[in-house]
Amino acid sequence: MSYVDVKIVVTGGAGFVGSHLVDALMKIGGRVTVLDNLSAGRKENIAHWIGHPRFTFIKGDCLNRRDVHEAINDCELVFHLAANPEVRIGIMDTKVDFEQNIVATYNILEEIRESKAVRTVVFASTSTVYGDARILPTPEDYGPLLPISLYGASKLACESLISAYCNMFNIGGVIYRFANIVGSRCRHGVIWDFVHKLIENPKQLEILGDGTQTKSYLLVDDCIEAFLFGLRHASQRVETYNIGSEDQINVTEIANIVAEEMGLKDFKFSYTGGVEGGRGWIGDVKIMLLNISKLKKLGWKPKHNSAESVRIATRQTLKEMAT
């Protein structure tokens, strides 16, 4: 698939993963429109494209149909990444995931349905749709899907809506279930939290849970490569792919990498103990590892493992904070 002069919309394109996707699409010749309300995204992430003849930025909300219509009206390809990015928010406000994920996705799909130009929608989902999976690594055809957070449930609902719209209205769909994506421009998550905590108190780091939470982490560069690769090779009306690394790392190991990259030696960890057997918070999937053999068989594989991804992301975070 060639992206040269293809009209593309990226919702959430000023965010962490979205802005890296925009970079990739612009570099390969796409005509990119970003729709972002800047609640989580930052205009600085896409500032280097402002003024480019193939780039348009719309400060708008996916909950506003007029904003969505303006962005999607004559485009050919939609990458839908706009969403609530923080799983823990659902504990305090149960409307957030419903509105920012489900309602927003419905609005996007309605505009795609009414559009005469859009052929494909690409959706950023999450490994949390699997819940506490009994099979590790977890393949795309695992079931039943029983998410344990409102975030995971809302993303699964979005996947179902996309599948239904694609089949009913002759649209192509590609769904990506992400592991933990890390790297430059990220402003949330474990690395960001640890760096800030250690700057505030370099002698002691509080770790949520019991420190044994073990998951897969992937550098955002690898994620974007997989994102475009899977789209090029999708053969079904609705294709679903896992994106992640092939190994895991636990939270204590991440803390040690962050402290090492910060040059700290005389420090101690303290653990909150967490909930429900050492989870960091209610709804936190404690152990996660995705089976990525579907993408690997097509020819993609990650360049970095979990520890390498965490280390590079930590260095990038520290560099960004210093500038």
What does this entry show, briefly?
The protein has helices spanning 16-27, 65-72, 89-92, 95-114, 150-169, 190-200, 220-233, 251-261, 293-298, 306-322, and strands at 7-11, 31-36, 55-59, 77-80, 120-126, 172-178, 180-182, 204-207, 214-215, 217-219, 238-243, 249-250, 268-271. Helices cover 38% and strands 18% of the residues. It folds into two domains: 7-181 and 217-243, NAD(P)-binding Rossmann-like Domain (Rossmann fold, 3-Layer(aba) Sandwich), CATH 3.40.50.720; 186-216 and 247-288 and 304-322, UDP-galactose 4-epimerase, domain 1, CATH 3.90.25.
Give a verbal description of the structure:
The protein has 323 residues and is α/β, with parallel strands linked by helices. The chain folds into two domains: 7-181 and 217-243, Rossmann fold; 186-216 and 247-288 and 304-322, UDP-galactose 4-epimerase, domain 1 (Alpha-Beta Complex). It has ten helices and 13 strands. It has helices at residues 16-27, 65-72, 89-92, 95-114, 150-169, 190-200, 220-233, 251-261, 293-298, 306-322, and strands spanning 7-11, 31-36, 55-59, 77-80, 120-126, 172-178, 180-182, 204-207, 214-215, 217-219, 238-243, 249-250, 268-271. The strands form four sheets. Strands 3-2-1-4-5-6-11 form a seven-stranded parallel beta sheet, sandwiched between helices. A two-stranded parallel sheet has the order 7-10. Helix 1 crosses helix 7. It is globular and about 60 Å long. The mean pLDDT is 96.
